[in-house]
User: Fold this.
Amino acid sequence: MIGSSLRRRLNAHDREILRLAVPAFGALIAEPLFLLSDSAIVGHLGTAQLGGLGVAGQALSTLVNLCVFLAYGTTAGVARQVGAGDLPSAVRQGIDGMWLAVVIGAVLILAGWPLTPWLVDAFGASASVAPYAETYLRVSLFGIPGMLVILAGTGVLRGLQDTRTPLLVSIGSFALNLVLNLLFVLGFGWGIAGSAWGTVLAQTGGAAVYVAVVLRAARRHGAPVRPDAAGLRTSATAGVNLLLRTAALRVVLIVGTSLAARMGDGEIAAYQVGFQVWTLLAFALDALAIAGQAITGRHLGAADAAGARAVTRRMVGWGVGCGVLFAVAVFAMRPWLPGLFTSDGQVRDLLLASLIIVAVLQPVAGVVFVLDGILIGAGDGAYLAVTTLVATLVYLPVALLVYAGGGGLAGLWLAIGLWMLTRMVTLGLRARGDAWLVTGAVRR
Assistant:
């Protein structure tokens, strides 16, 4: 009775949003769950090991997430082709993105191996944390090609309006990662290296599944699968603005980790756990953004600007509502969360304070992530690049003043809150106008 009543209250846009967002939610939270499960296991090895995972995790996330255009750009491009009714071109564009992922992954392994000590030092790791960070990062480099193929393959399926398959792959990868980490770290006693190897194997397995699924789609729609130089160039150049946007985002995260590491081992350990909770919630909210990318791209590809506008209003409402729900959940779980990751009293106290700010920021994050996804789906990368840079330039001096003035970890989280508010204002102003509503199979 309740379920049927709810269905009657949902309009067509709501049903479409939920059809795409609910499976995307499960798929998106798999990534932070990888590191959360790693944190829960590695945290029992010691504070230095947990701090090492935090530093290495940020370095690895930076390398991989700079390439998130492989997913976002592919989703928008494929969705526009779907809206225009050209499925072979849609799949071909996605395959070009997957080949590009393989090339970039190989380059990152070759470049990242000799630079590992420098990367760890750049994040301000202490002498006790650095060896563990270097170990985790060196091993994890071998999983980067798989991670990037997963990004590109996910973009193909999202553009084809399929978020259920990525959910199933993510569940399988997460389960495999958890089992392998427990076996390698606690069973075989491989320490933090065992955690890294478990994640590498799980990510590579997930990538293999995506390759199989996309190859099947290529056969079904008659799309060629061999590498195409022109297609690779198109995929690379289309992602430049998204790369700049992501680089500006990563600067905020890198500076936050670096400053927390310089505050002390307790601070970086607490920041690592708090940031993973933040990331888990952010990816959950990003499920709405993924729906926004796919639906917006399809509407604009079909020359339906009014439909894109209408679904934007609905998704912003969903973002605010989910943000409030997540805020309540964090406040409710706050007394018990620290005990899952550490027995260190200092880390527990720092984490308890951080979680208050994390909770308060969730409604703001709901609006930011939804509008960001909608503008990505519209191909409005240039605006996103510029305004994300502006928000980052607002954040940086405040974060540095917090560190210099002894504002501590809570002050650092408040600086992140200012960054989010700036992004909400700039994205909201764009969404109110019409400049982003460009229709057609390809955004000109």
The radius of gyration is 21 Å. The chain has a mean pLDDT of 87. The chain has 18 helices and no strands.
